[in-house]
Fold this sequence. Notes:
The chain contains 6 helices and 7 strands; from the N terminus they run E-H-E-H-E-H-E-H-E-H-E-E-H. With 165 residues, it is an alpha/beta fold. It folds into 2 domains: 12-99, Rossmann fold; 113-160, no CATH class. The strands form 2 sheets. A 4-stranded parallel sheet has the order 2-1-3-4, sandwiched between helices. A 3-stranded antiparallel sheet has the order 5-6-7, with no helix packed on it. Helix 3 (60-68) links the parallel strand 3 and strand 4 (73-75). The model has no long low-confidence stretch (mean pLDDT 89). Residues 106, 108-109, 111, 139, 141-142, 144 line the site of zinc ion.
Amino acid sequence: MGSGTPDCEGARFGVDAMLGRLARVLRLLGFDTLYFRDEDDLSILARCLADRRILLTADRSLHLLAKGWRLRTILVPSERIDPWEFARLTVEDLGLEGCVRPFTRCPKCNGEMEMVHRDELVGFVHPYVWHRNEYFAVCKECGQIYWEGTHVERIREKLSGNRSK
Ligand SMILES: [Zn+2]
């Protein structure tokens, strides 16, 4: 813990097909996360190796295979984990708390998002939403528009979790 500044650029993840919700949460937190929906094991491993991604999988044999490839890999105990809780623990474990950047990455496609003033988005979002938000996050890849509203706060809340134990 506390060993200097974390390598946020290097904090990239690959998530296997059973863990779609976890992939979404990691993206919401701002982490570059590939979600392998149909890829076979070898393609997944090759991609993670090429990008230096940390592989998160609930598949024990894939996890072992990844170890053989000397990939950083984390075995997710079950596909039914609470994705927020698991993401929080993973971020903590890896010392990446300082790398969390809510709403910088599109939960849908992993594209980078930029903040856009509402004046540029007249007619693109419902007037009700438009009036209540000055800035919107727009995905540079797929064009999806998100508004912070209470989302960012909720993310922080969920990430801080319930620490009583
Ligand atoms: Zn997108």
